[in-house]
Write a structure and sequence with these properties.
Alpha-D-Glucose-1,6-Bisphosphate, Chain A, domain 4, seven-stranded antiparallel sheet, 45% strand
Length: 170
């Protein structure tokens, strides 16, 4: 089984500002992971390319799990995740895959982000797909990750609006 979710958020900035100052900006990403998503650290493993030509990025971070007992028993009290992502400059789309330490072959979390731009700013459309191939607890893990993604998207949107205001981005 798999769970797919779509999230939509509106921001009063241009698409170029969104991509350059938020999505591709490592300072924003580190603050986002630490402040909005509660990660204890973030390490840049790979960051190559440019806005104009496309980018590949790999970030590693740790996070304390606030999860059901079955999930904590499997993953522990903290989880190390890697975000392997790519900016497709031609199609103006960000895609990613999250790899859970020790379970990368049995837990698949992937998604993409694209924008619709209008006169008031952008609408961010993000899609997440979760699949867990672990006998008996797969559905529990999938539902936990899907709920965490929804909560995380709400937290990210609030943080992003504050960040945009702090930096007076447009």
């Amino acid at each position: 089984m798999s769970i797919s979710s779509d999230f939509r958020q509106r921001f009063g900035i241009s698409s170029e500002t969104y991509w350059r100052e938020l999505c591709l900006n490592l300072d924003y990403q580190e603050r986002l992971y630490r402040e909005a998503l509660g990660c204890t650290n973030m390490t840049v493993v790979q960051n190559e390319g440019s806005y104009e030509t496309g980018m590949k990025r790999r970030l590693r971070f740790e996070k304390k799990l606030d999860a059901p007992a079955a999930v904590r028993k499997l993953f522990g009290e903290t989880v190390t995740l890697e975000e392997v992502s790519e900016w497709d400059a031609e199609n103006r789309r960000w895609s990613y895959k999250m790899i859970a330490g020790g379970f990368g072959d049995r837990v698949e979390i992937k998604g993409s982000v694209r924008l619709d731009e209008n006169e008031t700013g952008v609408e961010q459309i993000s899609t997440t797909h979760v699949t867990c191939k672990i006998f008996a607890v797969g559905p529990v893990v999938e539902h936990f990750v899907a709920k965490s993604s929804a909560d995380g998207n709400t937290d990210k949107a609030s943080f992003t609006r504050r960040y945009i205001d702090e930096r007076n981005l447009r």
